[in-house]
Each structure stands twice: as C-alpha cells, then as structure tokens.
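Blackboard transcription, Thursday session:
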Amino acid sequence: MKTPSVGGGPAIEADNLCRTYRTRTGWLRPRRGEVTAVRGVTFDVGRGELFGLLGPNGAGKTTTIKMLNTLLLPTAGTARVLGHDVVDEPREVRRRIGYVFGGDRGLYDRLCALDNLRYFAELYGVDPRERNRRISELLDRVGLSGRENDRVEGYSRGMRQRLHIARGLLHEPEVLFLDEPSIGVDPVAARDLRRMVQELTSDGTTVLLTTHYMAEADELCDRIAVIAGGAIQALGTPAELKSRVQDREILEVETTDVDEERLRQIRKLDGVREVNVTLQEQGQMITVHMGRGREIAGAVLAMMDDRRLGRVTTRHATLEDAYVAIVEDTDRGPM
Amino acid sequence: MTPGRAVRLIVVGVRTHVMYMSRSPIEIMLAVASPLIYATLAFYLFRAADRPDQLLQASVGAGLMGVWSSVLFGSGGAVQNQRALGTLETLISAPVPLVLVLLPITLSTAIVGTYAMAATLLWGVILFDVPLSFAHPGLFVLSLPLCVLSIGMMGLLLTSTFVLMRNANAVANFLDYPIWLLSGMLVPISVLPSWTTPWSAVLPTTWSARSLHLATDGARELSDVLVPMGLGILVGGCYLVLSVFALAWVERRARAAATLSLV
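(Written on the board underneath:)
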C-alpha cells in the first residue's frame, strides 16, 4: 500500500536547516532570548539507505528529525522528503513517513494494543479492508501476538517499544524516522529491534536512526552523520569515520582517584592525542588515545604507579572512539 | 479525504477516546461530583423559592453544567493529556486535517459529560423524589445528543487555543462560570442584564440548554423545542467552520512555536 513518491531523487534532502527557539523567563519583566538548536544542517539520505544521526544530548538530533517529519518548522533552510517540501506539503510528507520515538510515552496506556493500533490505523489511512490483516501481521512481527488484548499500562518498556514500532509501520511508510528507539530496552529486545530494522531496509524502507549506542549504529548504518553543537561535524560510512582514528591505539586503564592535574600531565605526553575519563561503579576508566606505533603506554602507566590499577588493555580504535574524538574536537572549538 | 472516511475516522476516534476517558474512575468521579453539588444546591433553592414543580429543571440544568464543565476541562485537559502521554505529536503528524483529530476528543468529553446528566437525574429521583416526568420525553432524548454535539463544537474552538498553550487549564477555570450563566443552564437568561443578551445568542450552549429545558417542561408546541434545537446546531456548525480555519492556522503556529511536545 506504499504511496508513490515524487521523482527518483534522494529520500531525504536537508539543505542548510536551522532552528532557533525563543525563550522567555519571568513575568513582570520578561527576559526574552533565543537558543539555536540546529545551525545549517545539510545531508541527503538515499532511498533504501539506513542513515544514522549520532550526537550527544542536546546536539540537535531530535530537532532535526522533527523538522524532517513536519512537526517543527525550520527557521531557515529547506528540507524535502521523497520530493515533498516539509513546510509547504506536510500532508504529502506525513502520508509517506513513519515516526517512532523511544521511551514510555506516545501510547494510550489504558487501552489495549489492539485498540491503539485500530485508532492509529484509521488516522494513518489504512484501508479498512486491510486493517485487521495488517494489524495481526505487525503484532506477529513485533512479537506481541497473544498480548494484543492486554492494556498497555501493564506492558514492559520493551513491549511498549515494539508496539510503537508496529504503530509506526501500520501504513507501510517509505521513510521511517527512529528516534532513539532502543533507549531503556534490554539487550535481547534491542537485538530484536536491530533485526527488525535490518529487515525493513532490506524491504526497501529508508530509515533515519538516532541512537546513543555506537555498536548499534556501527552494525546497522550505511552512513552516519555526527551532529554536535547543532551542526554536522562528520559524515561518512562507519568505516570512513573509524578511519579518522585508525592511526590511534587505545589504552584503557581501570583505576581510582586520578585527579585533573595528573590527567593534564598525561595529556602533555608526546604521542597522546586525547584522554577521557568515565566514572564507573568503583573507580574510573581512563581512556588514552595514543598514536599507533608509539611506545607510550608504559609512560602513561608510570604516571599512575602510585594508584591502584585494575584491568589494563590496549585495543584498536572503534566507532565510539571516533565519535568521542569528533565530539571532543567540537567542544574544544576551532584550534 | 472522502466524507465516508472522515465520518469513519470521527466514529473510531470517539470510540477510542470515550473508552480511554471512561477507564479512569477518578476522572469520572470528578466529572460527576460537582454537578451533584450544583444539583443539591439548586433543589434546595428551588424548594425555598416555592417552585417545587421545577425541580426536574434543576436536575437538567445541573446536568448541563456537568456536560459543559466536562467539555471545557476535558478539552483543555485532553490536549494537555495528549501532550503528557506523548500522543499529541503522533496525532498531529497523522496525514489528516487537525480538525478530524481533535473533534473526536471534544465530542468524547461531551459524551463523558452526559454521565453527569444521568447522575443528576438519578440524584433527584433518589434523594429529592423528583419524578422523571418530562413534558416531551421523545424530544428530550433527541435534544440531548444534539446538545452534546453543539457543546462539542464549542469545545473544538476552545481546543484550538489549548493546542498553543501549555497552561490551558487556567483559561478553562476562567470560562467555566460565565458560560453556564450566559447560557441559562440553571438560571434563565431573562434575569441577566440586557447587555448580556447578544453574548448569550452567539453561544450554542444557550440554544441547546433552551431546547432541553423546554422539552423538560414548558413547551406548548413542537416548534418551541425544535427551533432552539435547530439554532443550537446552526450556531454549533458555525463554530465548527470557524474551528476548521482556526486549527489550520493553529497547527502552523504550533509547528513554528514548538508547543506540541513537553520536551
């Protein structure tokens, strides 16, 4: 039942998209301000492509998606989905897209899955003669068959997420926006979700995915854009992004109480590109990006020899390391 | 969109929202509680004024106030609820005119409001021995859904403003009393100052309330009930047309101002 789209160009075209929010605080003397969430985002997504949009919280991912799915008007720039302008032809765009977001919200929790799907099927124009077949097919696909008459308020987060996906697929959209669909979902459910997304793209559906899980993005995406500070900082295949840090080796050290001064000294070591600290349940994980072939792991460890060290490993750089390097470069600003 | 599909969407929407609203015992209790208090006060006032023959009018009037309150707070609350549930964005991103998304919600609030009408009528029978002796029972039964429909249309126009505002309930509080007073739900509008008459005339609730009261008691001829009933539908229809234009503007405004979600 896919609605034919215009022309054979890219599925999604974003050209210099910008979005500014107006803020107002106080009543008697209101102070007005502006916050720019997206500044000049440009990218294309090909038909049938699985495109990832990665970035830290507040980077502008959701705002970008909401402009593309017609929920927000851009303050500047243009965007087209399947050849239709998102500002002037919202209904044409909406007919062809699905929007699934992560988390617990977005469903009528006092109703059962079947009633939720029946209502959304009507809203999204599913042919009444096809409706029941389509709903039962989707319930099967997302593994909710047998639970369709249970109220959603009794569902686990993973089940709600699967119901969300079924809702988003009711009208067989050509383009699917998945905004952090695996957030809070257990590993088994997340794996099922990835499998389902792969099946969708193999059926020809274009998917724009935002996620915080790098392994998920690496496994699924044909291309990835890293967005930070409201702008795209890097765009390419996972391999291309990883190649940005292929000249690095990563040293990971589990330790405790390494202070900022000590980290500054490590950063100053010749051959050290970057040092990050992640707090863990017990202690810290120090991640040191080192130039490949440089024998500096010993020097780094020597600087921590008065601390209790746990597991120490060296490994090749991953997509997550590339992502962290790109985002940290953005935070540091132009050198 | 074909008219058939539009009707189908409204019917399925009303079914869904009535079912959703009816599954909250607290909301139902709140919808019924204040009309029962109004009805009790009205029974004592009408008795004290030596008008025991009009106690059924008091039941109907208090029930109407319940329908109106349900629409007013329900429409504001429904939009807020959809926003809190995260469904407002999903509803608005559906490829259908916004009016067809919101009309079922306001109609549902009016239908849920009729629980209050049933409760006040029953309250009168059980506690105050008010017999259900309608002058024109058939016309009363016909007037009630048409009244619900026209109040629902009024709720739709209000809803368009509520989509834009995150604190819609504050406006709802402000509108509760003036509308039931101006519509003559409990007290006849003839006792109000003359400058209020034009305001009353443009409210569908005025005509719907009149047709229900006349069907309950006082109508000499059929036309006494049918004329205000028709006017209620006509004025309500005007509100529907206004809502179609208002909602097209509101939708674009909400997309520009980013008021669709809580986050």
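Lecturer's comment: DSSP finds eleven helices and 14 strands in chain A.
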